[in-house]
Amino acid sequence: MRLYALVVYLFLYIPIGIIVLFSFNAGRHASDFHGFSIKWYGKVLSNPFAMEALTTSLTVAFVTAVLASLFGTMAALALQKVRGQLRFFYDTAIYIAIMIPGIVIGIATLIALVTVFNFLNPLLEAHWPMALSEPPRLKMGHASLIAAHTLFTMALVIVIVRARVTGMDRTLVEASADLYATPWRTFWQVTLPQIYPAILAGFLLSFTFSFDDFIIAFFVAGSETTLPIYVFASIRRGVTPEINAIGTMVLATSLILLVMAQFLLRFRDRRSSPT
Amino acid sequence: MGSSRWANRLLLLPATGWLLVMLVLPLLVVVIFSFGERGAAGGYVPALTLAQYANLPARFTAFKNTLILAPIGTLAALLVAYPLAYFLALRVNPKWKIILLVMVIVPFWTSILIRTYAWIFILGGQGIPKLLGFIGIEGVRLINTPVAVLIGIIYGYLPLMVFPIFVSLEKLDKRLLDASGDLGASPLRTFRNVTLPLSLPGVATGCMLVFILLMGEFLIPALLGGGKVFFVGNALVDLFLQSRNWAYGSAVAATLVVTMLIVISIYTKLITRGSNQRDDAALF
């Protein structure tokens, strides 16, 4: 039994180990190890295309995480008081947003937004007050990436925060109201201290999801390139040690964020259960 | 309470807007476009025709591959995952339990692209086939075969399968296992008659999660199948990003979603007879 578990853990981690190992390979060829070197990291850091893709990915992931944790938390708190058919709509929509394959969301968002933009752009051109500035041209890019990533991650934050809100001590909120605290003050002094680990964990998971997502971005990025899109295109051109270096950095980024998120979620669990 | 109701609506406003504009509208557009026609330069021309659906057999291979490899991949992931989940839930020192579980979940949240890419390495000419060459087994081809895709699937989806099974085994009342043993049942019989039936909700959840995501898989067949083993996902990328045939692509996507819904509803019907708990919530 133990041996079996060990084999499965090796199966899970050896591929990751191989990427990390070969990212430090001095040799050009991935298959033979020629000694330790960090030159591929230097190559990546001085590659303007990779760096631009990295900047795009970080920007999109950060804005996505902010929007998702803000809107998701707001919705999770508000949904406590929603009942009946309306509640059914939200629960179903949130469930679909989490479960639907990314590829379907990707194509659906692509054709819907392009169609809406094609409809709006001539209108904007016709009615824009030319005296002020050039009319804006709506197109796929940063904004559509953020909007599409925020859908899934916001649903995720709602689920995480709602689990925490449900487990929260309701009497404290009531006590606060009885003591004449305004709802706003109750939120800051009673509710938020209890749910912030869940919000922070949701933020980190949202960031990780957006940073790692390939398939949705592949459709909605327009002419922008995110890091996963850059890596995918590089793999298509042939395997190089540079990809290993990028891969190691990507894995390290998400590992750090994940361990933080897991820590926050477990910490919350331990505190909330009296045992 | 009037002002508090308005405050509540205001809090829900951004989420509602997002769900309507980024989920409901796009899915509606796919349905509408699937009854349309392809424009001369690609894209979509409004129409009301079933021509796109009638043309679905043109992508028969993609559907066939998906409907063969998704269940096989799900089953393979289950077979690998179950013993591990069992080990983690019932055989591990509680001190190590959380850390070992987290070690299973963490890969799921890291880039599937990078992790699948590692297997190009391992299964490619310089990887396992070369190692096999050393011990005298020549000419093994792994990359760009269904086997490679299957390995990629097991690797990518293992955490998603382990977690719900772990949760249902963990919840199980350990006294039942003792009672079964005390009554003279062999460990195998205890497993078959007590442990396994009680863990079925977790198995069902895991299989459903993996199967749904596999139906829309693109990356694993694209990287490890080398264009020879392709899924509906690969057909969709081709239709939307290469040939820009939005109407036909929408019909393929709609068919994929409907197939998924049919499978899910049959599956939940079969499962909810026994129990209606869901064990996936804590994965996030």
Describe the structure concisely.
The complex is a heterodimer of chains A (275) and B (284). Chain A is mainly alpha-helical and 275 residues long.
Helix/strand/pairing class of chain A, anyone? mainly alpha
**What's the alpha carbon Rg of chain A, rounded to whole Å?**
23 Å
Form type of chain A = globular
- CATH class descriptor name of the largest domain in chain B: Mainly Alpha
Please mark out the parts of chain A with pLDDT under 50 across 5 or more consecutive residues, or reply none: none
Taking all residues together, what is the mean pLDDT of chain A?
A: 88
Outline type of chain B = globular
CATH superfamily of the largest domain in chain B: MetI-like
User: What portion of the residues of chain A fall into strands of 2 or more residues?
Assistant: under 5%
Regarding quaternary structure, what we see is heterodimer
Stretches of chain B where pLDDT is under 50 for at least 5 consecutive residues are 276-284
The fold-level CATH name of the largest domain in chain B is: MetI-like fold
Q: What is the annotated CATH architecture of the largest domain in chain A?
A: Orthogonal Bundle
Tell how many strands the DSSP assignment of chain A holds: 0
Mean pLDDT of chain B: 88
CATH T-level topology of the largest domain in chain A: MetI-like fold
**Total count of strands of chain B:** 0
Number of separate helices of chain B:
12
Largest interface: A-B, 83 and 79 residues
Structural class of chain B: mainly alpha
Q: Which series of helices and strands of chain B comes N to C?
A: HHHHHHHHHHHH
Describe the fold and architecture.
The complex is a heterodimer of chains A (275) and B (284). Chain A has 275 residues and is an all-alpha fold. Chain A folds into two domains: 1-37; 46-272, MetI-like (MetI-like fold, Orthogonal Bundle), CATH 1.10.3720. Chain A is built from eleven helices and no strands. The longest helix of chain A is centred in the first third of the chain and has 32 residues, at 48-79. Chain A is globular. By secondary structure, chain B is mostly helical. Chain B is 73% helix and 0% strand. Chain B has twelve helices and no strands. The chains are: A mainly alpha (275), B mainly alpha (284). Chains A and B meet through helix 1, helix 3, helix 4, helix 5 and helix 6 of A and helix 1, helix 3, helix 4, helix 5 and helix 7 of B.
